[in-house]
């Protein structure tokens, strides 16, 4: 055998792998980003420090494509409403990030422009189509089109707020459990537990590495322990943990419970008075609740959620429970942005599942260099 004297390629020992794209975060946004990158034939590694979708699967699974009101935490009057929830024991502030709070005060009452609303409308329409397409292939995540009954303090006031929503929600006023309610007509309902499992199957072929990323940029991702992954581009879809990479997101914590219940609600209920969503599926009822500013992964207020749900389901035997963190920017709008070779895709707050397909698609396009910019970057905070 003859050994030629080719050029020497030095691969440092701490390079674990050579990978074209790395996605940091295996929540619903990261899963969709990995899914679209893989569909483009890219070599993808997904880093997830916990279990896949451990935080995302807490969600109720109500996809509100024509209603952004729920996310507008910076509209005038919201701060008083939130403090009212805290006073009534419906929310808790266990820790506050001062830098986030300063940005919140700066963005308070600020309206996003028409360009942002059109962009969000397109994102919502794309996401809706993608969920329907996935369900048409195989509806193994119990997707259904069905109205949501919203129990609110003041139906007229809520109806007024919905009329002002730039996404133009369709709704009517109806009745549930003897009380007037807003009937929101445009949602899709999915089981997030089953959808997370479906997405995990859809990304087969993607390398999933159970590690925490501690540094991103300059063509590499450093993992806890010092190993390094090389990447042409990195997508940071780390939910509220993206804070460590410079995105202003706060952890609005909540719980999601799958339960066998004494009563089975005939409707999907968003009870804003009790602070719970109750969503029936074929084998369990999903119960979600709380909107606490709290980065701790404990289940301190879970009993309060079950207590509030009792009005709709009676006694609930918990099958499993997850703690979820809604990644909320100071204005409740997401962030989709490329800085150098790093793409940031987070900040979906209460509507992460609703927008996740579009978040993942656009993040993939930014990473692939097919798109340079979006109207929803962090530049709005500076
Ligand atoms: C109780 C509750 C109910 C909800 N209901 C709905 C609903 O009905 N409809 C809806 O549309 N949305 C809902 N949401 C919101 C939705 O769940 C979130 O917006 C969504 O989960 C955010 O997804 P994400 O992928 O951005 O972040 P996450 O779900 O937080 O996922 C981020 C992932 O990244 C991982 N990660 C972070 N940093 C690193 C790192 N450095 N290295 C490796 N891994 C890392 C984390 O472990 C995590 O798994 C709800 C949320 C909660 C809590």
State the order of secondary-structure elements, H for helix, E for strand.
EEHEEHHHEEHEEEHEEEEEEEEEHEEEH
**Would you tell me the overall average pLDDT?**
94
Proportion in helices: 25-40%
CATH topology: FAD/NAD(P)-binding domain
Q: Largest sheet, described in full? A: 8 strands, mixed
Radius of gyration: 21 Å
Ligand identities:
flavin-adenine dinucleotide
> Taking strands numbered 1, 2, ... along the chain, how are they ordered across the largest sheet?
7-8-6-16-17-18-15-19
**Low-confidence regions:** 1-9, 15-19
The CATH superfamily is known as: FAD/NAD(P)-binding domain
- Counted beta strands: 21
Shape: globular
Cofactor: FAD
Protein name: FAD dependent oxidoreductase
Family: Belongs to the DadA oxidoreductase family.
Transmembrane segments: 18-37
Question: What features would you describe in this structure?
Answer:
By secondary structure, the chain is α/β, with parallel strands linked by helices. It has one domain (15-381): FAD/NAD(P)-binding domain. 28% of the residues lie in helices and 28% in strands. It has 8 helices and 21 strands. The chain has helices spanning 28-39, 78-87, 98-107, 114-137, 155-164, 192-202, 302-313, 352-368, and strands at residues 15-18, 21-24, 44-47, 62-63, 144-145, 148-151, 171-176, 179-184, 188-189, 207-209, 213-217, 220-223, 228-230, 233-236, 250-261, 268-271, 276-280, 285-293, 316-328, 335-339, 342-346. The protein has an 8-stranded mixed β-sheet with strand order 7-8-6-16-17-18-15-19, with helices on both faces. It has a 6-stranded mixed β-sheet with strand order 10-3-2-14-21-20, covered by helices on one side. Strands 1-13-12-11 form a 4-stranded mixed β-sheet, with no helix packed on it. β12 and β13 (228-230) form a beta hairpin. It is globular. 47% of the residues are buried. Mean pLDDT is 94; it is low at 1-9 and 15-19. Bound molecules: flavin-adenine dinucleotide. Flavin-adenine dinucleotide is lined by residues 24-30, 47-50, 54-56, 58-63, 212-213, 237-239, 241, 254-256, 288, 324-327, 346, 348-354.
């Amino acid at each position: 055998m003859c050994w030629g004297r080719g050029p020497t390629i030095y691969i440092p020992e701490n390079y674990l792998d050579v990978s074209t794209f790395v996605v940091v975060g295996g929540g619903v946004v990261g899963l969709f980003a990995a899914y679209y990158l893989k569909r483009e034939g890219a070599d993808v590694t997904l880093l997830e420090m916990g279990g896949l979708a451990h935080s995302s699967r807490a969600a109720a699974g109500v996809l509100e494509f024509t209603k952004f009101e729920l996310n507008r935490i910076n509209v005038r009057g919201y701060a008083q409403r939130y403090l009212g929830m805290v006073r009534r024991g419906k929310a808790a502030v266990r820790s506050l990030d001062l830098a986030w709070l300063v940005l919140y005060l700066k963005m308070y009452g600020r309206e996003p422009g028409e360009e942002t609303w059109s962009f969000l409308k397109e994102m919502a329409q794309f996401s809706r189509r993608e969920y329907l397409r996935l369900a048409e292939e195989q509806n193994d995540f119990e997707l259904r089109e069905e109205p949501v009954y919203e129990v609110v303090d003041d139906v007229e006031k809520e109806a007024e707020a919905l009329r002002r929503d730039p996404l133009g929600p369709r709704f009517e006023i109806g009745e549930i459990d003897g009380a007037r309610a807003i009937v929101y007509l445009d949602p899709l309902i999915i089981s997030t537990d089953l959808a997370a499992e479906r997405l995990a199957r859809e990304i087969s072929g993607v390398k999933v590495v159970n590690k925490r990323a501690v540094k991103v940029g300059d063509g590499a991702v450093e993992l806890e322990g010092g190993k390094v992954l090389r990447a042409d581009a990195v997508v940071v879809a780390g939910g509220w943990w993206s804070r460590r990479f410079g995105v202003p997101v706060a952890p609005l914590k909540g719980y999601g419970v799958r339960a066998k219940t004494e009563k089975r609600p005939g409707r999907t209920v968003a009870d804003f008075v009790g602070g719970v969503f109750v969503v029936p599926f074929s084998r369990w009822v999903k119960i979600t609740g709380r909107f606490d500013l709290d980065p701790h992964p404990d289940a301190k207020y879970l009993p309060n959620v079950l207590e509030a749900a009792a009005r709709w389901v009676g006694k609930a035997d918990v099958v499993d429970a997850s703690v979820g963190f809604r990644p909320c920017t100071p204005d409740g709008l997401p962030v989709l942005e490329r800085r150098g070779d790093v793409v940031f895709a987070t900040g979906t707050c209460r509507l992460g599942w609703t927008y996740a397909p579009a978040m993942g698609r656009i993040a993939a396009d930014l990473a692939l260099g097919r798109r340079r910019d979006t109207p929803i970057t962090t530049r709005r905070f500076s």
